[in-house]
Design brief:
There is one protein chain. The chain is an alpha+beta fold and 172 residues long. It has a single domain, classed as Trna Endonuclease, Chain: A, domain 1 (3-Layer(aba) Sandwich). The protein is 28% helix and 31% strand. The protein contains four helices and nine strands; from the N terminus they run αββββββββαβαα. The protein has helices spanning 6-24, 113-130, 148-151, 158-164; strands spanning 28-31, 41-45, 48-57, 61-65, 70-75, 78-83, 93-98, 107-112, 143-147. The strands form three sheets. A five-stranded mixed beta sheet has the order 1-2-3-7-8. A hairpin with a 2-residue loop joins β2 (41-45) and β3 (48-57). It is globular. The termini are far apart. This is PD(D/E)XK endonuclease domain-containing protein.
């Protein structure tokens, strides 16, 4: 049986693109390709170190395990949702990479885990509200999707990483 490596190739491309872009911004970085429990990349500059989680999309949306960020209660068939009161690392930086047809089409969306939680909560709650508290297809599902539209405010937010590493911010 031949293994489908597309998922691994997509993840590897995203991590490599983030490492390259960090280098263009004066930051030394290395990818660990899933070998660290909470991070895909370690970035460093002037003695400061930062962990980054990378998620790569080949389309305009991707799926998220909502239960990692939200408390979801199932009172069959309805669900109620609240943000997890204590995330393991709310300041962990996520970099969502949207692959394009070529390198010029690649986009980066950079935000904290807390900001990601807010996006997922709003989307999940709105979806439940719209459907009277029920997941229409799979009543027990705890997955959510996140789209480029939801991430738009964080496009090219490299200053978040630079700020955390104590670097000068872009003056625009």
């Amino acid at each position: 049986m031949v293994k489908d490596y597309k998922r691994y190739r997509v993840a590897q491309m995203g991590e490599s693109l983030v490492v390259a872009e960090l280098g263009r911004n004066g930051i030394v970085a290395t990818s660990f390709s899933g070998n660290l429990p909470e991070a895909d990349i370690v970035a460093t500059c002037d003695g400061k170190t930062l962990l980054l989680q990378v998620k790569t999309m080949s389309g305009t949306s991707t799926h998220v395990k909502a239960e990692d960020l939200l408390d979801i209660e199932l009172d069959f068939p309805k669900q109620t949702v609240t943000p997890k009161p204590a995330l393991g690392n709310p300041d962990l930086i996520f970099v969502y990479v949207q692959l394009g047809d070529n390198l010029a089409g690649v986009k980066f969306y950079i935000l904290t885990q807390l900001q990601l939680q807010e996006i997922i909560f709003d989307g999940y709650k709105n979806y439940l509200d719209k459907n009277d508290g029920e997941r229409p297809r799979n009543k027990e599902s705890k997955h959510a999707s996140i789209s480029i539209d939801q991430l738009a405010n964080f496009e090219g937010n490299w200053d978040l990483i630079k700020e955390r590493l104590g670097m000068p911010l872009d003056q625009t």
